[in-house]
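Morning, I've got a small favour to ask if you have a moment. The fold is given in discrete form, as structure tokens running alongside the sequence. I'd be grateful if you could look everything over and explain what you see. No rush at all, and the record is pasted right below.
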Amino acid sequence: ISFLNLQVGFNADEAHNIVKECIDGVLGGEDYNQNNINQWTASIVEQSLAHLVKLGKAYKYIVTCAVVQRSPYGFHTASSCFWDTTSDGTCTVRWENRTMNCIVNVFAIAIVL
């Protein structure tokens, strides 16, 4: 029996890399434009979710995305979860360029079979 591929719990690093690639693909090279925010955020969450589901793991996913224009006031978020920390997990990806900040949260809840 090979245990090399056996993973208990959520792989936050894998999710982080997937989400970062999606953000880079949507926002990379763009400047903040309020008219594009709805399309950008929808694309980021839909692409991230699709790639996470393609991993074929027994999880339900929740993906949130916020994009704001950069300002001297900063941007702060928080979340709290009540769940099984041995199997469920979360990751947060922070991304920025000179005109905007983006924060994506992934929440993964294990499906008990």
Q: What stands out?
A: Residues 1-6 have pLDDT under 50 and may be disordered. The radius of gyration is 16 Å.
